[in-house]
Amino acid sequence: MPTETKPRRTQAERSEAMRARLAAAAYETIAQGGFNALRMRNVAQAAGVSQGALMHHFPDKNALVLAAVEQALALAEQDSGVGDLAPDASPEAVLRALLDDLHGFFFSDRFWVAIGMTMEAAKDAEFYPVLRGSVSGLRTPVYEGWKNRLAAAGWSEEEAQGAVRSAAAMISGFSIRRFWAEPDALEETLTQQWIAERLARR
């Protein structure tokens, strides 16, 4: 029986696959070594390609930073558990799942790579608006998913949107606070207060 041959990928498909491979290598380079490790040589080596091949797709460091941040947030979207919750989950279970999902993001390399690169980009008056404009909407699908899940559990759309935003602000604050303080009872107290307030508004 003749062996089936896979159709050859188009040039555009091969180019897109290479860009994804290089973006993943840039993200991993930063996640493992920080911003100072982001060198064309290091990323090319991590991806197993020449520097010339890398620069064909990402001609400068800013292009590579943008790709790394987009990769971090794309991975975070894949990690999200918004679609894993049982349809009949209780309102409190939905709130706790939202908090767990946000905790998983804000305490991960995904967040720290994205925020670290954004802070570095803020020093560049020309590049920062480009980066901010490109990535500002990349978390939107996750937040929209949770807003819709809360609305399905009985909150108004306005309350659901407010709950997602306030939860993100609270958990990101907990994450940043870890720079100078260990977790304590205050975080749990604030979390329980937030849950109680959200349930009261349903």
Automatic annotation (TrEMBL):
<keyword id="KW-0238">DNA-binding</keyword>
<dbReference type="GO" id="GO:0000976">
    <property type="term" value="F:transcription cis-regulatory region binding"/>
</dbReference>
<protein>
    <submittedName>
        <fullName>Putative transcriptional regulator, TetR-family</fullName>
    </submittedName>
</protein>
<dbReference type="InterPro" id="IPR009057">
    <property type="entry name" value="Homeodomain-like_sf"/>
</dbReference>
<keyword id="KW-0804">Transcription</keyword>
<keyword id="KW-0614">Plasmid</keyword>
<dbReference type="InterPro" id="IPR050109">
    <property type="entry name" value="HTH-type_TetR-like_transc_reg"/>
</dbReference>
<dbReference type="Pfam" id="PF00440">
    <property type="entry name" value="TetR_N"/>
</dbReference>
<dbReference type="InterPro" id="IPR001647">
    <property type="entry name" value="HTH_TetR"/>
</dbReference>
<keyword id="KW-0805">Transcription regulation</keyword>
<dbReference type="GO" id="GO:0003700">
    <property type="term" value="F:DNA-binding transcription factor activity"/>
</dbReference>
<feature type="DNA-binding region" description="H-T-H motif">
    <location>
        <begin position="39"/>
        <end position="58"/>
    </location>
</feature>
<feature type="domain" description="HTH tetR-type">
    <location>
        <begin position="16"/>
        <end position="76"/>
    </location>
</feature>
